[in-house]
Amino acid sequence: MLDTLDAAAVRRWCASGLTALRRHQGEIDELNVYPVPDGDTGTNMVLTLTSAQQALAMDLDTLPGDGATAHGHALRLMARGALLGARGNSGVILSQILRGLADALGPVPAVAGRELAVALRAAADAAYAAVARPVEGTLLTVVAAAATAAEQADSDDLRTVARAAAGEAARALARTPEQLPELARAGVVDAGGRGLCLLLDALVEVVTGESPPRPAPVTRAVRPPLTTVREAGSDEYAYEVQFLLDADHEAVARMRAELAGLGDSLVVVGDGASPAASTTWNVHVHVNDVGAAVEAGVVAGRPYRISVTRFADQTAPAPRPRPAADGRAAVVVAAGAGIAELFAGEGATVVPGNPSTGELLDAIRATDAARVVVLPNDPNTQAVASAAAKEAHRLGIKVSVVPTRSPVQALAALAVRDPRRRFEDDVIAMAEAAGACRYAEVCHASREALTVAGPCRPGDVLALVEGEVHLIGADLVDTCAAVVDRMLGGGGELVTLLTGADAPDGLADAVRAHVGRRWPFVEVQAYPGGQPHYPLLVGVE
Predict the structure, then answer these.
(1) CA distances from 366 to 96, 97, 331 (A)
(2) Could you list the mean pLDDT of each consecutive 10-residue stretch along the chain, which spans 541 residues?
(3) Cα–Cα distances in angstroms (integers) from residue 225 to residues 34, 35, 164, 186, in the given order
(4) I need a labelling partner for 328 at 20 to 30 A (CA). Which of 45, 251, 322, 360 fits?
(5) Strand 536-540 versus strand 438-444 pairing type
(6) CA-based angle 474:480:484, to the nearest 5?
(7) Which residue, among 36, 35, 28, 38, has the nearest Cα to 284 in the 3D structure?
(8) 87: Cβ–Cβ under 8 A, 6 or more apart, which residues?
(9) Is 390 helix (H, G, I), strand (E, B) or coil?
(10) Between the CA atoms of 225, 227, 232 and 238, what dihedral angle is there, to the nearest 10 degrees?
């Protein structure tokens, strides 16, 4: 738990927020009622924040030389990286939210609750100023609601203000269909607002060490036909033009006026440099005359990274299929109520641990899907899964088994599942994600044995990595922390902890705190797994 937001916390927030956006990228893209590229809000926000994180990583060990605070320097790097990598309206607006935070918090010696509230208001103002014709029921509405709630919290406690902002943002997101008819007709909430809520929840987790328990917004089952309504603007304009521009403020003001006469969906934002100096700008507009738009940039300064997209060449993303005769599904083996709940939340059919071939086959058939992926989560269940797959093939069901050996690998695989891909490509992506997730198990020895780590006696704590005993200890918490250290020594950005049915209270919190001290840039996600025999399962991605 943090009392102030320091540079290390800013870096953890960026990493945690990016992980959350990546996990929900497909979901956010599905929320859109707009054609690509502006419709791919999840993808655009991921690309934008990826650029922000890269900017932070490239400046990992440098200190600000201009008298700025360390946290202000980190926020400025985030904001500039986001600006340079911003994609689409949502990405550009996100970059301005970060810029507003950086401008407000940069000079502040310590960031507590009231300072965060002031910064969120600056972020909301910067976001509104970036859009030529602001529309309510969008990302703008959500960030404004977060700022208002932070101000009304009227507290110096950073955790109180962060929770208030994130909570009201979620409520504002739920109200967006009441403000924007296109959202109401499609039965969804605003995609950009959903992305911002994930980032604010990530901030709460960094500050408090707790994940806000918030359900994902309900999406429609089937996407309606492609609509000509754009994320911001009408269907009168055929092209999206976006570029970076190095120019001074006066020249950009003239260019802004000229572009406003050429089209709509105009967003022109800078990196917050002094008005007297040349600044880097991100320019986004919908037009019919591409040449005139680019020429306006040439007159103003030096445009580069120019991208042009013709809307007529774009197609709507394919609908996310429901389990049906021509759809697909996932069947996952899970030992533990908590683990089963996690998989069910990912839309998978869950089978209790150690199933028979017949039980797995029944689960496959019960999905009513023509293509099914099976995640066995145990080396001993892989042969059973393969046998069930062969039987399913005889019934006309195409089944692929991804050889996951631990539930943490299955979570990684399900996180990248995308029904818009070819089934075969999706299976490959899931297998790659599972293979990239190293796993460990911690248990108590049931008998005396000689292991590769040395002899063990009944009651000793054993830490197994990829199925092989690596550590033998006497204390459960110390051994859990040690095996996480050993795994992170080979690299990693995300640690997943699943606590077992017999895990002592506070085990996950103790390991999370250890990682926070020893590996400050690593994100930790902990869930009650409820699995028998293993107090802790660990995954490192």
Answers:
(1) 48, 46, 10
(2) 88 89 83 50 84 76 62 89 78 89 91 94 91 85 95 95 94 90 80 93 91 60 36 67 87 91 84 64 87 91 82 48 59 90 88 82 87 90 85 87 94 89 90 93 88 90 91 94 93 92 92 92 90 92 92
(3) 10, 10, 38, 10
(4) 45
(5) antiparallel
(6) 140
(7) 38
(8) 37, 43, 44, 47, 48, 242
(9) helix
(10) 130
Structure tokens at 412: 């990684």
Q: What long-range pairs does 128-133 form, CB within 8 A, spacing at least 24?
A: 129/96, 130/92, 130/93, 130/96, 130/267, 130/268, 130/269, 131/89, 131/93, 131/232, 131/267, 132/256, 132/260, 132/264, 132/265, 132/266, 132/267, 133/232, 133/264, 133/266
> Residue 454 pairs with which residues in a beta bridge?
451
Residue length of the chain: 541
Tokens of 485: 């250290």
Q: Can you give the pLDDT at residue 400? A: 93
Quickly count: other Cβ atoms within 10 Å of residue 45's Cβ: 34
d(CA 321, CA 265): 32
Kindly state the helix (H) or strand (E) to which residue 276 belongs, with its residue range.
none
Residue 488, phi then psi, degrees to nearest 5: -70, -20
Nearest C-alpha neighbor of 225 from the set 43, 42, 35: 35
The angle formed by the CA atoms of residues 412, 418 and 421, to the nearest 5 degrees, is: 130
pLDDT for res 275: 60
pLDDT score, position 346 = 85
Q: Which residues contact 72 (CB under 8 A, 6 or more apart)?
A: 64, 102, 105, 106, 107, 108
Closest CA to 282 of 462, 80, 98: 80
- Sequence-ordered list of residues with C-beta below 8 angstroms from that of 250, at least 6 positions apart, any chain: none
Give the CA distances from residue 368 to residues 343, 348, 359, 439, in Å, rounded to whole numbers and listed in that order. 18, 13, 15, 32
Q: What global pTM score does this model have?
A: 0.53
Phi, psi for residue 350 in degrees, rounded to 5: -105, 135
Residue 436 CA to chain centroid, in angstroms?
Answer: 18
DSSP character at residue 67: S
Alpha carbon 56 to chain centroid distance?
A: 17
Please report the pLDDT score of residue 396 as a whole number.
85
358 HSE (CA, 13 A, CB side):
0
**Which two three-digit tokens encode residue 146?**
């977060």
Dihedrals φ, ψ of 399, to 5°?
Answer: -125, 135
- Measured distance CA(231)–CA(139) in Å, rounded: 11
Residue pair 334/353 in contact by the 8 Å Cβ criterion = yes
Task: Provide the strand spans (E) within 149-204.
Answer: none
**531: Cα separation from own chain's centroid:** 26
Closest-CA residue to 43 (of 65, 7, 18): 18
SS3 state of residue 438: strand
Alpha-carbon distance of 530 to 535, in angstroms, equals 9
The pLDDT of residue 514: 94
